[in-house]
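Deliverable D2.4 — example input (structure tokens):
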């Protein structure tokens, strides 16, 4: 049951590891950057109705746009309408019918919205891919998902969300939302409206792990031990890759909205010029594959790597494998 939206979640997060490309003026990429409230675009999963003016016998209701973004009506076969408005799609269908009808006037009406979706995972009651049937905000999205999961601690019911490590990503970028201010202080300036393909991840407060990411042999989550340090963390994850830049390591601590960064010199540690850097639960240890001078140079990459790793870890723990050994 969880497999479909888990796979979708990973696809939503793929752009996090790459730099977002700029749209070229005049093409569909530029229009897709607009809010769906300003420009509603068709996409796979949408269901539309067709009519041909003056020919009621050619009415065709309930056509679902195919996964490749195409749709067919009469002699207009496999017309790509993904990213087009209803009016733009009508023009494309009319062009395809011109060789078969004199001045065809096509009427397209929407029946079901299926292409505008977002994903929500983590410590909410109902995880999944959600259809955007109407404009909603971040608070509404979490409320519609059943709210934050709770548990018992010292006979008290407590929320299990780590607001400092929760995030919302859009088109490969983490948005600067302070979840703690939103849900604990009631700061509605943090309550953004949800857009199609948004990815919401509510992190767990009961985790006592840290992450070793970037140019190491096996990047990922690592269980916390009393002796956890930068050197031991890298060793436990298999050491550096051939592309690793080993002079400096970035350690990110605290909330995503106000991250605390520590630049650790491995060269000085290995030369016994300074002590190894002790880690704390939920630290992010990031090893870059290129030289850098300031923490700000790679902070964005470190947080993006965490987003991808945290989601992959959640999927591995909560979703049964798609393929199993016979």
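Example output (designed residues):
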């Amino acid at each position: 049951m969880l497999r479909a939206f888990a796979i979708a979640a990973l696809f939503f997060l793929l752009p996090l590891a790459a730099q977002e490309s700029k749209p070229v003026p005049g093409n569909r990429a530029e229009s897709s950057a607009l809010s769906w409230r300003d420009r509603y675009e068709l996409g796979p999963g949408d269901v539309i109705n067709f009519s041909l003016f003056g020919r009621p016998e050619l009415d065709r209701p309930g056509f679902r746009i195919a996964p490749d973004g195409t749709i067919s009506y009469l002699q207009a076969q496999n017309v790509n309408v993904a990213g087009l408005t209803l009016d733009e799609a009508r023009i494309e269908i009319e062009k395809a019918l011109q060789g078969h009808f004199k001045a065809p006037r096509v009427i397209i009406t929407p029946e079901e919205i299926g292409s505008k979706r977002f994903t929500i995972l983590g410590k909410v009651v109902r995880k999944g891919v959600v259809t955007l049937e109407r404009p909603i905000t971040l608070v509404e999205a979490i409320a519609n998902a059943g709210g934050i999961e709770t548990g018992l601690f010292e006979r008290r019911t407590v929320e299990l969300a780590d607001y400092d490590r929760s995030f919302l990503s859009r088109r490969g970028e983490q948005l600067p939302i302070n979840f703690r201010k939103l849900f604990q202080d009631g700061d509605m300036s943090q309550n953004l409206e949800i857009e199609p393909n948004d990815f919401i991840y509510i992190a767990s407060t009961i985790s006592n792990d840290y992450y070793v990411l970037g140019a190491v042999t096996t990047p990922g989550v690592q269980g916390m031990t009393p002796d956890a340090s930068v050197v031991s963390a890298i060793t436990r994850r298999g050491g550096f890759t051939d592309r690793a830049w080993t002079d400096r390591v970035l350690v990110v601590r605290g909330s995503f909205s106000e991250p605390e960064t520590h630049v650790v010199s491995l060269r000085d540690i290995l030369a016994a010029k300074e002590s190894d850097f002790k880690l704390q639960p939920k630290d992010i240890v990031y090893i870059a594959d290129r030289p850098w001078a300031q923490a700000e140079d790679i902070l964005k990459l470190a947080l993006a790597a965490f987003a991808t790793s945290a989601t992959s870890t959640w999927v591995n723990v909560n979703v049964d494998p798609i393929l199993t050994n016979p």
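Residues 18 and 172 are 8 Å apart (CA to CA).
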